[in-house]
Amino acid sequence: MYKIVIVSHGTLAEAFFETLKLFSPEISGVYTVELDNKGINIFEKRIDILIEKIKNDNVLIFTDLFYGTPFNVLSKKINSFKGDKEIVAGVNLPALMEAMLQRNQMTISEIIPLIKQANKAILLTEKLTNEVNDDDE
């Protein structure tokens, strides 16, 4: 089992959390930290408080942007977590749901390929074209 941390600019992390609750009303072990207009120092203090709380657990961290401030701060602090850990940049709802639904059955290393697959964009025209081509065979 692993904990899930969603970190973002603005209120995106909390919005993802609230949306996850639509699918699973009783969520435990999912945390959010947001970089808001209070600045980076307050954000880092929030991260430090969370790390202190869950540092001995396995932790899967989702950030909104690769090389954005939330990603950069967590990258510097990643070794503060003592268990298995990974950062996934470019969070989206399908990836979060996959991680959440499988966290009691899979390890972080086992879930990563599924998260990568869930994180891929799906274009309607490609999907329809592939389905038509599959029907032709």
From TrEMBL:
Domain of life: Bacteria
PROSITE patterns: PTS_EIIA_TYPE_4 (PS51096)
Pfam families xrefs: EIIA-man
Listed InterPro entries: Bacterial_PTS_sugar_comp, PTS_EIIA_man-typ, PTS_EIIA_man-typ_sf
Gene3D superfamilies: Phosphotransferase system, mannose-type IIA component
Positions of the PTS EIIA type-4 domain: 1-122
Key words of the record: Transferase
PANTHER family named among the record's database cross-references: PTS PERMEASE-RELATED-RELATED, PTS SYSTEM MANNOSE-SPECIFIC EIIAB COMPONENT-RELATED
The protein's name in its UniProt record: PTS EIIA type-4 domain-containing protein
Species the sequence originates in: Dellaglioa carnosa
